[in-house]
Specification:
Elements: H1 15-31, H2 33-39, H3 44-52, H4 71-84, H5 86-99, H6 107-115, E1 123-126, E2 135-140, E3 143-147, E4 161-167, E5 176-182
Helix pairs in contact: 1-4, 4-5
């Protein structure tokens, strides 16, 4: 499930090129909608084709080979995907949104996400302001201990890393943060 990672120097397709690639994929996506519905996930071959088209780089930080698209360009990409398969558009939109957390972390934290080979979306995000949907973090010698059980997140099946919400104060619900964790299974 890996291939050579795109370097920051690689040529990033522009939004119009990605839309054109998606339009060419629309018949494929339509033909695989039923399979996506049955499996309750986007088929891996669809993920591979979308990755080759540059779809999963739309919100990757530019310093790691991503684009710097406008909101309009992103919407054009999501609309083109939706015309092929609504479930696929949802997964790409959700993982692109979760991927925006990459901009909030230092390069040394985020680099392993983008510098290792991977096909598909790199990240997903889950959790929030509800303790039912988040874990906990507490300081320990040398770092933080993160514990919890997070619910399913859109895009988690194909991702290498997850941004997970954690509460870091047992008594104050405003003390919530995101942690970046490599997916182990």
């Amino acid at each position: 499930m890996t291939r050579d990672a795109r370097s920051a120097d690689a040529i990033q397709p522009d939004a119009a090129q990605i839309v054109d690639s998606i339009v060419a994929l629309q018949p494929w996506l339509r033909d695989h909608q039923a399979l996506a519905e049955q499996e309750r996930r986007i088929p891996h071959e669809s993920i591979e084709r979308l990755d080759a088209a540059g779809v999963f780089s739309v919100t990757r930080p530019k310093r790691f080979g991503g684009a710097d698209f406008t909101t309009r360009e992103l919407h054009d990409i999501y609309r083109a995907l939706g015309a092929g398969c609504g479930a696929t558009a949802w997964v790409v939109w959700a993982t692109a949104g979760g991927n925006l957390w990459s901009f909030a972390f230092d390069d040394d934290v985020v680099a392993p996400v983008y510098e290792s080979p991977w096909v598909g979306n790199r990240t997903f995000a889950v959790g929030g302001t509800s303790r039912r949907m988040s874990g906990t973090a507490r300081p320990v010698d040398g770092g933080w201990m993160v514990q919890g059980a997070w619910p399913f997140a859109t895009g988690s099946v194909h991702a290498s890393h997850g941004y997970l919400a954690v509460f870091y104060d047992d008594t104050d619900d405003s003390k919530v943060a995101m942690v970046l964790i490599a997916k182990t299974s």
